[in-house]
Amino acid sequence: MKSWKGPQLFQTPFICWAMLEGMRPWVCLLPWALGLVLAQPSSPTPLPPVQAIPPGEMQPLAPGQRPAPTLPQIVLNPPIRFVERIAWASNGFVEAAEALVLIPEASTTPSFMLTKAQRVVAETFAARPSLSYVDVSIYSRREYAGFGGPLPRFTASVSRARLNEFLRLNLSNFLQFDHLWIKPQDAFYGPPAPVTDELELTPQFQGTRAQLRAQQLEQTVASQQGGVVGNRLFHGDPRQRVVALTFDDAPHPLFEPLLLDTLRRAGVRATFFCIGRNAEAYPYFVRDMVQQGHEVANHTYHHVRLNGLDEASVTAEIVQANQVLQAITGKPIVYFRPPGGRFSPTVLEVMRRLNMTVVFWTDDPGDFDNIGQGPLEARLLRRLRPGGIVLLHDNVLQTIAVLPRFLALAGQQGYRLGTVGGLVQGVDRR
């Protein structure tokens, strides 16, 4: 039998062409390494490959996105003025509710907002005695543009055990309550930004053909050796049954208490890629993550696609989120995931300058597409692999419901799930 030499693409002519394109010298050796990789048996579930961004693409919706199941509502009787809705959800162990309150701009004083929040929290607990947590977000009605829009003016998360403590707060001591936030007068949300809601189905790179090919080759070789290559992490050590569990878009005021409770019960720690805007409005959930041993990472400040942005804009998005997260956690932020998986040479250069690592994934089951608990669990288990990186979202109730069984079954197969930092420990090739 003849030995496999690989296609002509991976031989000397390509190496010379790559060098002429100005690639880093070590990148020019990747075709040779890739030939060795392709000679090995292929994985039963291929990695999500780095793809080119289609030219002229407009802002899309997530492909095939299905609406999330409608959450049950709590109706107060009598109703409280300015309360828009109160939704609740459960992880099977505890229940949490989130109240959305829209008030006139003239009423956005600390005194009014604290009093309103205390009444809403107390009556929500009374209306549904099985609740463990009530979260309240108060916005100026004039500013409100949904969860991703301008910041709320006041937020709080109150457990039933701390209800009486919350109700005793007044203007002289309310800032001492560690699960309460009021927007500072000088808080700056930033200029309008093109927020994206598309799924991170596959990493997508904007650059020249040669640069795209280099990214694809790096991804393929990295999947065989594991660890950080350059400033990118595509895959952990494929020889070890260690997997990173990651959640994008955190924190969310309704789902964060449920997700953190689920992970605590399972004894599993994860990495949360936080949107700076969300972290700024709900800093206490970020503190809870750190206190419970989870890792906090950067997902931009506004959750924008970075491809096509100039270096100053990319830097601003990442640095602003870092500043928020570092102020909350007291720790440097090391890892970053680009929204929509969109990146470019500019993004990589900013990462290099900030000494941060871009984290991709091996397994995106599409939980944000609301595919159902059965298909979600099946995809998670089918794509599980040594050195894998699982991408989920913190604001999907189906994900929270599936997690206990998935984590238990993964453990039975000998997998240890944890943080990105734990995955790269010992195999960092930076």
From TrEMBL:
It comes from the Bacteria. One of its GO terms (molecular function) is metal ion binding. Pfam families: Polysacc_deac_1. PROSITE patterns: NODB (PS51677). GO terms for biological process: carbohydrate metabolic process. Residues 241-418 form the NodB homology domain. This is Polysaccharide deacetylase. It comes from Meiothermus ruber (strain ATCC 35948 / DSM 1279 / VKM B-1258 / 21).
